Amino acid sequence: MDLKIFNLIVEALSSEKAMLLFRIEAVSKQLDENKSADFPSPSSRDDLESGIWDISNSKLRPLFEEKIRSGQQHIGSLVQQLDSIFCAGAVFLKRNSTARSGSFVYLVCLHLWVMYILMSHSPVSDEARSGAAISLENINNTGGV
To answer: Which of 31, 44, 81, 120 has the highest count of CB atoms within 10 angstroms of its CB?
Structure first.
């Protein structure tokens, strides 16, 4: 009985930790968006629009590196949360045989449904045209009249 309570407490704390990490990331993202960045003045060799902007000489290089680092941390925390969710699900399925058999039946039905969808497609005929092509023909026919 104590082990079940301990597992419930651990699961509750891990979900609360994940929620707080999402809040921290949202606040830090909002702070980053509110920062005003001074873009370098465009010159002939540092033109952002032409695609030859050299980021190595830019004042924004640390900002871009921070955004990349925060993105990597976000993906890492997302993977950790998914891992904890799947581990909790595995523990639940290990303990509950009814849920285990129900999930097995669900997966079998899901696979049968996907196989039905994949096998029951109708071949595309040459006469069939997309709605976009038909509507463009209608626009062209009514535009000149």
So the answer is: 81
Residue 130 lies in a domain: no
Task: Report the domain count for the chain.
Answer: 1
CA 49 to chain centre: 29
58-103 residue pLDDT tens: 666 777 778 888 888 888 889 999 999 999 999 999 999 999 999 9
State which residues form the domain around 97. Answer: 1-32+63-117
The answer, as to whether pTM is greater than 0.85, is no
Per the domain annotation, does 142 fall within a domain? Answer: no
* Contact by Cβ (8 Å): 8, 16: no
DSSP state letters, 35-89: S---PPPP-SS--TTTT---GGG-TTHHHHHHHHHHHHHHHHHHHHHHHHHHHHH
74 located within any domain: yes
- Look at residue 136 and tell me whether its pLDDT is greater than 70: no
Assigned domain for 125 exists: no
